[in-house]
Amino acid sequence: MKNIITRILTLLATVFCLAAEADAQLAMDAPKRELRAVWLTTINGLDWPDTKATSPAGIERQKQELRNILDKLKAANFNAVIFQTRIRGTVVYPSQIEPWDGCLTGRFGQAPGYDPLAFAVEECHRRGMQIHAWVVAVPGNKSAQIKALGAQALGKRVPQLVIKTNEGNMLDPGQPGTADYIASICEEIVRGYDIDGLNFDYLRYPEKEISFNDAATYRRYASVGQSLADWRRENISRLVETIHRRVKAIKPWVALSCSPVGKYADTRRYPAGGWNALNAVSQDAKLWLREGWMDILMPMQYFRGRHYYPFLLDWQEDAAGRTIASGLGVYQIDRQQQNWPLSEMESQISYCRRYGVGGQVFFRSRFVTDNTKGIYNLLRYNLYRTRALPPAIDNKRSAPPTPVNARIEETPSGYTLRWEAAEACRYVLYRSNTYPVDTEDANNIYKVRLTEPQFTISLPLLEGWLPYYAVTAIDRYGHESAPLEINKERKIRTFVPLEINKEKKISTLKH
Q1: What CATH number does the domain containing 333 carry?
Q2: pLDDT in tens, 19-63
Q3: Whole-number Å distance between alpha carbons of 256 and 189
């Protein structure tokens, strides 16, 4: 019996060791730069909010719900939130252009008594996370919304830009004024809020199931001999270029991203099955990367197997030096959806890392924070166990800022690290037990702070020893300065393993 117990304990120890080694390898493989984001859906309160802001208590509960979501995401080392800001011709901020959406109060056109976008920006930045305003571009109001909005409905406000559909109405990308209209909404958001990016959804023509008759627009504006397919792709690309030009003129550091259909087109080996960005919905998204009109693409790759992996590589191979962040259909693991195994998410993230893809964006956030099939635990305690910085975006500026005058000061509450930097919007504090601090190792990222050039260490000093620290500054484009070591290498007594003197049978300890 004793031998059996010993064997069982040995086997369990081996299993735990192997599991620990596997976890360590996954954490070690996590890159330092990786976009880790969720689409936080506000339409119909799918992800937020649950509570309606119809009273002061309701406002506070609504705010707390968002804080709770962001706290969970921060704890799992997410670094960005894609916050649905423009829904379907309605918005979740006080706009001079479009009316309030009904998700906040239960009534379209009714103000919630506070600015949800300003609140979301503040709370994301408080946690060192980016916030990208998610703009649903072409869709207009559904039929029920049109009735509820009355004179504020899209078709009443800009009838010359709208086409009626079997579901309600949509903006017509073929109308020259449509690009200016959507760009004006983007300008309003960028001028009014300290967002880190704009993410565009449905920046395309509708699928065949939606009746969308733009024949009159085509006859009026298409060039002689230009096919309908080429004309439509040109319209969407003009819209993208207009948004880029007008947003970057205001704040060139705001990252522009788009969520195209998950398959660009047929590859040499794998057909897209007819549903693709280029031909089915007129999104020449690879062109947008080459022209620099988009900084990031987040293709909606809610597939698996041969429908996912080869098409992810297709996007990555034509990234033109910019960022591809794979849109992952985490909702598909839900038992009420496709009931994928959790291992599918793990495989897709591992594949992203193996081929240098710039990150992952999960649709939707509630499936992550509700820990569907254990996805939150998998991310927090395994795949996202180390922190990561979002990828930088391209720009033509000079070198990033350099931290200066860093020092450690003893205080009654512990030790305070202080530093200064020019033009920084974020500071990254690294901590390591080795010198110099390796700032390329994601395991050493200790804290990410927004414009706060100090950090207090509350732990007591142990025999004159502290871990080694380094700090860098990150500019608005995400470019990082050279690291500045805060404290110098110390002479520390080190120990070697015990050795047994065979003759004297005495344990000796070497220094």
Answers
A1: 3.20.20.80
A2: 334 434 444 479 999 999 999 999 999 999 999 999 999 999 999
A3: 13
